[in-house]
Design goal:
Blueprint (H helix, E strand, L loop, with lengths): L6 H6 L5 H4 L8 H4 L6 H17 L12 H17 L2 E2 L7 E11 L5 E6 L2 E5 L6 E4 L6 E9 L5 E2 L4 E2 L10 E5 L10 H6 L2 H10 L4 E6 L4 H14 L2 E5 L3 H4 L4 E5 H10 L4 H5 L11 E12 L1 E15 L10 E7 L15 H19 L8 E7 L7 H8 L8 E7 L9 E5 L9 H7 L2 H4 L2 E3 L1 E2 L6 E2 L9 H6 L4 E5 L18 H20 L10
Parallel strand pairs: 6-9, 9-10, 10-12, 15-16, 15-17, 17-22, 18-19
Antiparallel strand pairs: 1-14, 2-11, 2-14, 3-4, 3-13, 5-12, 6-13, 7-8, 14-16, 18-22, 20-21
Length: about 525
Amino acid sequence: MNRFILPLLAAVACWASPARAQHDDVELLNRYAQTSEVSSVELTAMRRIEGHMRFLASDAMAGRDTATVTGDVTAEYVASQLLAYGVEPAGDDGTFLQHYPLVRSGLDLERLRFDMHVDGELERSFVADDEYAVRGYGAAGYDMRGGVVFAGHGLVDNASGVDDFGGLDVEGRFVLVLAGAPTIEDIDPGLVVASNWRAKQEHAKGLGALGLIIINPPDDERAAQWFRFAKARMRGQSMNLGGEERASNPFPRLYVESAVAEAMFDAAGHDFAEALDLRTDTAGLGGFTLSDVTLDLAAPVAAEELSSANTVGIIRGSDPELADEMLVLSAHMDHVGVDDSGEIYNGADDNASGTSVILMAAQALARDPSRLRRSIVILGVTGEEKGLLGSEWWVSNPTVDIDKVVGNINIDMVGRNQPDSIGVTPSPDHPEHNSLVTMAQSLTEEAGIEIEWQAGEGDYLRKVDEYYYRSDHVNFSNAGIPVIFFFAGEHEDYHKPTDTVEKIDIYKVMRVANLVTLLSRVAANSPERPVRFAK
């Protein structure tokens, strides 16, 4: 090997001869087969990765949607690979699968209603699609009425000393917030993290609010993108965990055009233009109640019960004192399926790439479990695209002792963009920054790939911290478990039928797999558990 010895590759090299590795009949590997920088052993590993990806992202898998036959086949495929590697099953009843209930629901758009009352009288009925979109209606829908509280951007970050909810009584009321964070150049990194809608929703929900209303300000393309996404999803179907509180008692999230918010402000005697000034000033107007304004929201649904399955295996550690502690290595296996016109969303990068990484790491780690002091759980989850459902179910209903889980390494979309680096969160600016991240930083030279705090292509280049709430690690983080998320960023093919295997940088995926394997081994063998750093 002419550059560095890869532990992952060393673990699989004995199964392939250099002659077999030099076969160049696979299109993707032709990019590398004649390159002196890539060894025959590396090509062998890349063939294995491409094999996983070509199956998972094939048209035959029809986009691996959750609660479909091909979604179930995906879970079985990952289980079969873990079985072949010698990984022990850690799902239900001695199997690799953990089944969980789901409820799929669709809005009755003809009966959907969002009205504004002023002093008890109907003032205006807003128009779905044109003026607003609604999400989070669950399996039961809702019919609710309440007042409105404006909470600026809805940001809460203790390290920055910012709490837009401070002093506001939001219980039993809708919370109205501006999308994102202020657009000032030197904004505190913690506020960028807090600008995610999930963070705002959790704060509002925790304070007893009825729902969250997000304003789409004029000339804010990113907010407009979320509004378009919400409108498209509103016309489709939503999935929620069956038997869970949020399925029967949902928390609505509405996206509204600025004209809707302006009408609410006018009715309460406030100047909406002043609220928009908050977009360039974190110390602008405080929050306030929109007096005499009441919102009436009705979202009837039709629902059906379904199920899906996570895939769970465990590689037992060998240390008598540490083997009962576990590191979870996770990736979501699902994608978004087929659209109404029959277009298949293959999801090669999202997330056949991450699924392939955990399979490669599992193969390498399971080859010699005696080298591991702690145990390692391999977790492939479904329902990520529906709202991080599979990982939420596993964390709430773990198939191992969750109190013994010391950390989570999560991988999602690692096959595109910057060829020699991989994005990571939580960064040193993030309140959840922890020793898993610093461990990973110390291993980059050996792995042959650098760590960056931003990732993405062109207009999608952003800090990875902005994606902290958008993948499965956040459910582990919410349970108090240190996490690290590997993510190469978005690109023009994100959630499109054009996310295909031919566009994947297999060499990059291989090096990410190597870094994940190294990190798993180091974290499993460290005398100390991963820890969060004090801020």
